[in-house]
Design brief:
This protein is an alpha/beta fold. The protein has two domains: 1-37; 44-258, SGNH hydrolase (Rossmann fold, 3-Layer(aba) Sandwich), CATH 3.40.50.1110. 47% of the residues lie in helices and 9% in strands. The protein has eight helices and five strands, in the order H-H-E-H-H-E-H-E-H-E-H-E-H. The radius of gyration is 26 Å and the shape is globular.
Length: 262
């Protein structure tokens, strides 16, 4: 009789084990899948920003809706600074070089690549057909707090170029190297190395047909490789002299790609 009870108990335990074991497998599989999932690259994930940023974004959309754009500048505060009056910004230089070229400024201070990607998907380049787009973006992804590697940033810039090629297939692109920067902090060397790595990678995006790359960074440096304060007031943003250097450096290529008559 006791033997029969033991047999019955053993059978019951075996049945319970069969019921429990399959329930464990999905959880194990889920954990393994999570461990194997690649980390999201913030530099390539389009996101907006709150507050005054959205107002600026909408102003750019309004300019795009007005049309009549032959030349487009895309970027962050360094690009937006073309609208700032001298001596701090490049407003006069813009008027000199681009005032009669139907130029549009699509720069927003503080933007990273992911923000530009969102703007391009939400009206900034809708309905326009520029001959040329000049891109200088990525410096705000460089500091450690942005949690972006050089490869991440390069991928974000590649995404912007790709978005332009998709949405504006007849527009030629002049992609500029990320400008040099220095905030005199301990991470300067790391930032310089990251910027150099990004620039080396994005240079390969040029195809010599629709996408062109220019590195004009040496124009902003002195003989010792330092950024003079009379060119970039905070060692990041050009002043009027810096914008003049920028415009003069790219002018031959801009004229060529826009098909300006000589």
């Amino acid at each position: 009789m006791k033997t029969s009870r033991w047999i019955a108990l053993a059978l019951a335990l075996s049945s319970f084990a069969l019921l429990v074991q399959p329930a464990l497998l999905p959880a194990q599989d889920s954990a393994a899948a999570t461990a194997q999932a690649p980390a999201q690259n913030v530099a390539t994930t389009p996101v907006p920003r709150p507050g005054a940023w959205m107002q600026r974004h909408e102003r750019i959309n309004s300019r795009a809706k007005a049309g009549d754009v032959d030349l487009l500048f895309i970027g962050d505060s360094i690009t937006q600074g073309w609208e700032t009056a001298a001596p701090q910004g490049g407003k006069d230089v813009w008027a000199k070089y681009y005032g009669d070229r139907k130029a549009m400024n699509a720069g927003i201070s503080g933007d990273q690549t992911q923000h530009v990607l969102w703007r391009m998907d939400n009206g900034n380049i809708d309905g326009i057909h520029p001959k040329l787009a000049v891109i200088m973006i990525g410096t705000n992804n460089v500091p450690e707090r942005s949690q972006c590697s050089a490869d991440d940033i390069a991928a974000g810039i590649k995404g912007i170029v790709g978005r332009l090629r998709e949405k504006l297939p007849e527009t030629k692109i002049l992609l500029l190297a990320i400008f040099p920067r220095s905030d005199r902090a301990a991470e300067n060397d790391a930032m310089k190395q990251k910027i150099d790595a990004v620039n080396q990678t994005i240079a390969k995006l040029a195809d010599g047909k629709m996408v062109y790359f220019m590195d004009i960074n040496s124009k902003f440096l002195d003989a010792d490789g330092k950024i003079p304060s009379d060119i970039m007031r905070d060692f990041l943003h050009p002043n009027a002299k810096g914008y003049e250097i920028w415009a003069e450096a790219i002018e031959p290529k801009v004229a060529e790609l826009m098909g300006d008559k000589k």
